[in-house]
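Run log, item B.
One chain of 311 residues. Sequence copied directly from the ordering sheet:
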Amino acid sequence: MTLGKVMIAAPVHEVLLQGLTDEGYELVRAEKVTQETAFNVIRDCVGVVTSTRLQLDKELLDTAKKLRWIGRMGSGMEVIDVAYAAGRGIRCFSSPEGNSNAVAEHAIGMLLSLTKRITWSHGEVKEGKWLRDENRGMELEGKTIGIIGYGNTGSAFARKLMGFDVRLLVYDKERKEVPGQITNCEHLSLIQEKADIISFHVPLKPDTDHYFDQAFLEKMKKPFILVNTSRGKVVDTKVLYEGLKAGKVIGACLDVLEKEPLDRLEAEEKAMIDAMVEGGKVVVTPHIAGYSHEALYKMSDIILRKIVMYS
């Protein structure tokens, strides 16, 4: 006897598929499902495994009368109306610990690519150009790096940075304990005063939507590099663009955009992104920081264990 149907609405590792099958679930493969088509698929399901494709809002949840649990590949629970789900007795599981290392490594890679001019110089060599002075890089050693959000990814990023001989400042309004070699900031103002580089590792909530806005920019005391591998809407693109033009921001690493993919951008937004990249000051990747082969396995395994243990 089956435990019920589970909609697989995200790319997952075979370990999760086999594990759910072994538990007695019937899998409904729907990796390409859309918000519109999800209503028909989810109707008879007791479980859903999702990522960023669907918004599991009240309307969609009301369709799923049999739903008992939701597994989120990754960390962003903003795609689920968690409070409403809880009121319905639906358990929600995420797996932020599964891709934190991947995000941390990616953030380091983007930062090095930007500061060492790797992306642009590589493109120039492919074109037959050999420009050394124009691509002179900067070192991380001795820089002050502010990490905003010290959960799974923020703390993983900090650990990676410890070998670069940098000063680390951490601000997290909920987490108060950090390792001794890191400065725990009670107030964000210390980061805004001292940081040469700022990296965001926060979930998308009402108080982090456009966290980096004009007021934030104006409080920064030094020209700085911005890194965002969290959620696109954490950074106001127009403010970043104007900050780069004014020289207040000297570079940026963006794995996420306010609207994704690129074909969702309006003309003005697309023009700003293009100008920032072509200006040689911004590295952009297509939301892949937490999407490594290893992370896909880790997240799938973690979700499976949580479903088996708690659902």
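Observations after the first pass:
- DSSP finds twelve helices and twelve strands in the chain.
- The radius of gyration is 21 Å.
Flagged for discussion on Thursday.
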